[in-house]
């Protein structure tokens, strides 16, 4: 059902309950699956109505959905079985055993045998584990307590346990209100059947929501809304943690349920084994056990009446209140906006018509445009007359487009300018629109019909919508009786709409259909108001000031179209209109009384203020960056103060420390990428350079038995003097020299921490630093017959119909500071992943969390599936240990110890039967997978003059031959013989390229792709570790010298040896392939005497190389 149908079901459920149709109520609960009535469930369990219990449960879950569900059904059927035995009804017990309990034998055969043996006892209480079984009533009570905990912890029930708060007889009220809601403004209204936003009559799609911000968990997709009802999504609910626990004969044992996976003792410094647990008869087999919490047994459920949005706890310390810099504008600031992708780019507009782009990390103004009409001849006579006046055009609003590729400027004289931004100081005139008669008061971007548009409003009392590509006018909305002050486009599911406010305090709402406004409300105090949604789109706020100087900051109850709460603390005699902003779905800020004032969204009291060194005007302009860690505030001396919290200060310091050193890389300058739009030049050829004298990634190849070779000159450069065998390094400098594609992404752009192709090659999975996974899938079509990943066809950023995201548990850790890791099952059905919190197992088709386990500390830092048994995983930990974990029986089999710092790499060899681990201590260890003993260990030799970071990642990956090992460190690439742990070759890049960020074998193990901090990618011949091709960042990134963007991770296609993908610091993912006419990345350099034998390499395989 759709989200709107969901609301309708709740209205009907309330109505049926009020009318005492009890049987129908529970039937609808079960068939819709929207609300699990715990009280009804308790009554059925207490009365032993087992068939009804399972029938009711079937509307919400099945036995094999997850371990919680399996445990729930097992406990119910076990109780039914024991009750039959207690009544000495052997025939019924046998029937239950065969029909109900045998399904569990496949998961725990020993348990099923033990259950069967109970039939041979005169009294099942003679079994030691069942000796404390009391009477039927008490046994049901104990089981019920356990079932409730399992249901509350089961993800499938997480949004279904609380009925949303509704006013009494809500459905009747809505029906009675129909005439008033249908046509509030006297204009002809379209049929409510065809217009799902009308909400005036009780048709599907026409009901206002059930609550605003109640504790009910929504489906992740935004809900379609009745504008008349101003719908808001309900609230996610935190749930008490519980464990699916082991299934067993014992009566419910909460201490067993909440038990951690058993961690071995630590008597052996190198390796520990799991010992027996005397508390459990079934200790050797725990197929349904699941670690979810280590909380005490008597944990109390979380109160469901909370108004919380499920956010982590925040404090005033999270607010950006520390002044870190001042930017001098030269004229008064009227509007600001941070770039949606680059968190340190600030767009500023002033009262003199100037528009500037600042890079706050370096405090540099990287672009400036003054107000100037681009085509005076196309201007109307009123506009030309206005331009002849002495007073300049002021900027009223600046705003970036959602992807940051464009920004718009609304001026006080008729005009809207759209600029395209290409990085650095590269601003290009895109569109000039004579939008309104008089002042253009506001603009915003929206996506009606999935096409980027610009919404503007003005002094002429009109709202207009323009095509952002062509400038064509798409819609005109008329109906305000005063100048339109602001616009706020938004959407719920596929329904797009616009809120508008006017200077007379009227608020209206419009669909993109030229059918008139759907809503006509008064802003508090009839103020000139701006409106804004919280970042997640679920809560609506407005802030404004009326003619008397009274200011109002409020949250709206979209269910009722009324003010939900009014925040205290704004002045009563404000000068100008108070501006505000929201951030993190938690904080509000407003500029008032020469201060920045902060509120928690859920508390009307003023939370904090910032004087900003006493430099603010009465009503300063303010703007958060997307992450909420920086805040720009206009000052009374025509400047902008940048405020930051601790995370923002770290960000700025990182940018300052990594400022591009142009002098150091001057010798490595490459051809600049051509302007966007000229990539298809047919006369561009692949650039080459003889030798490697100017290369930032020149290689030093060393045999392991020659330590002096680390200090010798690059040998490739020497070859350039040999006229008889001249070889050219292939240099890729321009976009036309390769095929590259940035994958589409409408989700929050955060740096890509992990990246992998699916084993089928049909999709790419990325894990961002905010713990969210993104999956891109290619479709089979005429342009892509195989349906595999390619740079020639744009894929779809895929989400299941539910709209949920695969998001890792982060616990109390900051995901930005965590070490993310994931591993993909061989059949691409499941991904195991962690971002500093518990490890999660996700279903790749539904994105549902199948289970979570291993809560920190210590946190998992690397994951690898055993090549022969997907139930066994190796888990590298923050505390330097490696845990060999059996998912099926929920048990830590072995803990391996030998590293000194966190684990950063794991790789299995199925031919050698070994596990190789690498750590932030730059050490390699080899472990036998037969007995898990350590066979060898060795520290990487660090090249002279190189000082690795204290926690430098060391990665390992096996060659296709499963014998030779690729070792990746920020200072080097090395090949090892895994049997002897002997270094065969070493390649050290020049310092000018910056550290190595990542590297991987191509799928056929013939090449090694290496990414660097300067943004370049080197391609080595794997057998010789010789650089044969270099791709410079100008070939795939837009030129922007002020912003450091570089790949953090690189992934190789599992069946296309010349295709790889890059995960970037700006959140982008790029697919890169050679030109079809080239077919490969350069040519291998000639063999070198003494370079040693090539490692053997097998044919390209379909399996993803082990990470």
Explain what you see.
Residues 34-92 form the CTLH domain. InterPro entries: CTLH_C (IPR006595), LisH (IPR006594), Topless_fam (IPR027728), TPL_SMU1_LisH-like (IPR054532), TPR1-like_2nd (IPR054080), WD40/YVTN_repeat-like_dom_sf (IPR015943), WD40_repeat_dom_sf (IPR036322), WD40_rpt (IPR001680). WD repeats lie at residues 433-476, 896-937. Pfam families: LisH_TPL, TPR1-like_2nd, WD40. Residues 1078-1107 are annotated as: Disordered. With 1107 residues, the chain is of the alpha+beta class. Among the domains are: 3-174, no CATH class; 523-656, YVTN repeat-like/Quinoprotein amine dehydrogenase (Methylamine Dehydrogenase, Chain H, 7 Propeller), CATH 2.130.10; 751-991, Methylamine Dehydrogenase, Chain H, CATH 2.130.10. The strands form 14 sheets. A six-stranded mixed β-sheet has the order 30-32-57-56-55-54, with no helix packed on it. It has a five-stranded antiparallel β-sheet with strand order 1-45-44-43-42, with no helix packed on it. Strands 31-53-52-51-50 form a five-stranded antiparallel β-sheet, with no helix packed on it. A hairpin with a 4-residue loop joins β59 (1060-1064) and β60 (1069-1074). α1 (3-18) packs antiparallel against α2, α3 runs antiparallel to α8 (136-153) and α5 (67-86) runs antiparallel to α6. It is globular, with a radius of gyration of 32 Å. The two termini are 40 Å apart. Residues 178-243, 252-313, 658-725 and 1089-1107 have low confidence and may be disordered.
């Amino acid at each position: 059902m759709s989200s709107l149908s969901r609301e309708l079901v709740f209205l009907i459920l309330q109505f049926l309950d009020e009318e005492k149709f009890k049987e129908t109520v529970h039937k609808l609960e079960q068939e819709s699956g929207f609300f699990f009535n715990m009280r009804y469930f308790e009554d059925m369990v207490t009365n032993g109505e087992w068939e009804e219990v399972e029938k009711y449960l079937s509307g919400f879950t099945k036995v094999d959905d997850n371990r919680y569900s399996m445990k729930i059904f097992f406990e119910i059927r076990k109780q039914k079985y024991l009750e039959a035995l207690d009544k000495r009804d052997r025939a019924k017990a046998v029937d239950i055993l065969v029909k109900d309990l045998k399904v569990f034998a496949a998961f725990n055969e020993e348990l099923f045998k033990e259950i069967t043996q109970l039939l041979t006892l005169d009294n099942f209480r003679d079994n030691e584990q069942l000796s404390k079984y009391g009477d039927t009533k008490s046994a049901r009570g104990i089981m019920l307590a356990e079932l409730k905990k399992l249901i509350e912890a089961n993800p499938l029930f997480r949004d279904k346990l609380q009925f949303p708060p509704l006013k009494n007889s809500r459905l009747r009220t809505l029906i009675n209100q129909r005439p008033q809601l249908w046509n509030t403004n006297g204009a002809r209204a379209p049929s409510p059947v065809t217009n799902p936003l009308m909400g005036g009559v009780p048709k599907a799609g026409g009901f206002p929501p059930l609550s605003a911000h109640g504790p009910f968990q929504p489906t992740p997709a935004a809900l379609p809304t009745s504008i008349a009802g101003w719908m808001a999504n309900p609230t996610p609910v935190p749930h008490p943690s519980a464990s699916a626990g082991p299934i067993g004969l014992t009566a419910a044992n909460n201490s067993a349920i909440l038990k951690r996976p058993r961690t071995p003792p630590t008597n052996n410094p190198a390796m520990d084994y799991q010992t027996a647990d005397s508390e459990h008869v079934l200790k050797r087999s725990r197929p349904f056990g699941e670690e979810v919490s280590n909380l005490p047994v008597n944990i109390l459920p979380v109160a469901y009446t909370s108004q919380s949005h499920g956010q982590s706890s925040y404090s005033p310390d999270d607010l950006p209140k520390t002044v870190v810099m001042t930017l001098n504008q030269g004229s008064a600031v009227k509007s600001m906006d941070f770039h949606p992708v680059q968190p340190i780019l600030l767009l500023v507009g002033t009262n003199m018509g100037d528009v500037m782009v600042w890079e706050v990390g370096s405090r540099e103004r990287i672009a400036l445009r003054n107000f100037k009409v681009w085509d005076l001849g196309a201007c109307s006579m009123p506009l030309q007359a206005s331009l002849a006046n002495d007073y300049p055009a002021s900027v009223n609003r600046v705003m970036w487009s959602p992807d940051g590729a464009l920004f718009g400027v609304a001026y006080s004289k008729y005009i809207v300018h759209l600029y395209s931004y290409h990085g650095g100081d590269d601003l290009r005139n895109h569109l000039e629109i004579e939008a309104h008669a008089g002042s253009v008061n506001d603009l915003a971007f929206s996506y009606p019909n999935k096409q980027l548009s610009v919404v503007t409003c003005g002094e002429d009392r009109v709202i207009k919508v323009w095509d952002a590509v062509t400038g064509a006018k798409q819609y005109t909305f008329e109906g305000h009786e005063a100048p339109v002050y602001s616009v706020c486009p938004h959407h719920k599911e596929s329904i797009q709409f616009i809120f508008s406010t006017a200077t007379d305090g009227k608020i209206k709402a419009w669909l993109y259909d030229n059918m008139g406004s759907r809503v006509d409300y008064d802003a508090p105090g009839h103020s000139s108001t701006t409106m804004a949604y919280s970042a997640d789109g679920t809560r609506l706020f407005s802030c404004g000031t009326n003619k008397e100087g009274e200011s109002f900051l409020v949250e709206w109850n979209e269910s009722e179209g009324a003010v939900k709460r009014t925040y205290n603390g704004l002045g009563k005699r404000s000068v100008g209109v108070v501006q505000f902003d929201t951030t993190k779905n938690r904080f509000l800020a407003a500029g008032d009384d020469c201060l920045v004032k902060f509120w928690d969204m859920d508390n009307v009291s003023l939370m904090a203020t910032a004087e900003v060194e006493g430099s603010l005007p009465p009503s300063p302009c303010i703007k958060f960056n997307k992450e909420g860690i920086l805040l720009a505030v206009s000052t009374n001396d025509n400047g902008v103060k940048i405020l930051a919290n601790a995370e923002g200060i770290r960000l700025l310091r990182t940018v300052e420390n990594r400022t591009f050193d142009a002098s150091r890389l001057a010798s490595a300058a490459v051809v600049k990428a051509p302007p966007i739009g000229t990539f298809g030049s047919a006369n561009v050829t692949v650039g080459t350079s003889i030798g490697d004298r100017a290369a930032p990634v020149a290689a030093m190849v060393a045999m392991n038995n020659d330590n002096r070779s680390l200090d010798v000159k690059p040998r490739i450069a020497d070859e350039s003097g040999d006229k008889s065998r001249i070889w050219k390094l292939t240099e890729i400098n321009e976009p036309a020299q390769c095929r590259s594609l940035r994958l589409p992404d409408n989700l929050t752009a955060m740096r890509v921490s992990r990246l992998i192709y699916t084993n089928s090659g049909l999709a790419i999975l990325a894990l961002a630093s905010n713990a969210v996974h993104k999956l891109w899938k290619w479709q089979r079509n005429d342009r892509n017959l195989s349906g595999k990943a390619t740079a020639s066809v744009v894929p779809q950023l895929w989400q299941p119909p539910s709209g949920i995201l695969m998001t890792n548990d982060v616990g109390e850790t900051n995901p930005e500071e965590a070490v993310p890791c994931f591993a993909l099952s061989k059949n691409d059905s499941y991904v195991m992943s962690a971002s500093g919190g518990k490890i999660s197992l996700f279903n790749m088709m539904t994105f549902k969390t199948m289970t979570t386990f291993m809560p920190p500390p210590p946190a998992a830092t690397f994951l690898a599936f055993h090549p022969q048994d997907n139930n066994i995983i190796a888990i590298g930990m923050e505390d330097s240990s490696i845990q060999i974990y059996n998912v099926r029986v929920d048990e830590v089999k072995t803990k391996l110890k030998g590293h000194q710092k966190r684990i950063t790499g794991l790789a299995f060899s199925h031919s050698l039967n070994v596990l190789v681990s690498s750590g932030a201590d730059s050490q390699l260890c080899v472990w036998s997978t037969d007995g898990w003993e350590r066979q060898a260990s060795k520290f990487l030799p660090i090249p002279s003059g190189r000082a690795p970071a204290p926690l430098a990642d060391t990665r390992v990956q096996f060659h296709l031959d499963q014998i030779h090992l690729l070792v990746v460190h920020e200072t080097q690439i090395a090949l090892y013989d895994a049997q002897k742990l002997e270094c065969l070759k070493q390649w050290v890049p020049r310092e000018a390229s910056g550290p190595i960020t990542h590297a991987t074998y191509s799928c056929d193990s013939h090449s090694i792709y290496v990414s660097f901090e300067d943004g370049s990618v080197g391609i080595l011949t794997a057998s010789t570790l010789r650089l044969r091709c270099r791709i410079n960042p100008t070939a795939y990134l837009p030129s922007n010298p002020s912003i450091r963007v570089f790949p953090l991770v690189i992934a190789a296609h599992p069946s296309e040896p010349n295709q790889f993908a890059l995960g970037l610091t700006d959140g982008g993912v790029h697919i890169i392939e050679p030109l079809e006419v080239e077919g490969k990345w350069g040519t291998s350099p000639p063999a070198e005497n003494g370079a040693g034998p090539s490692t053997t390499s097998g044919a390209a395989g379909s399996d993803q190389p082990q990470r």
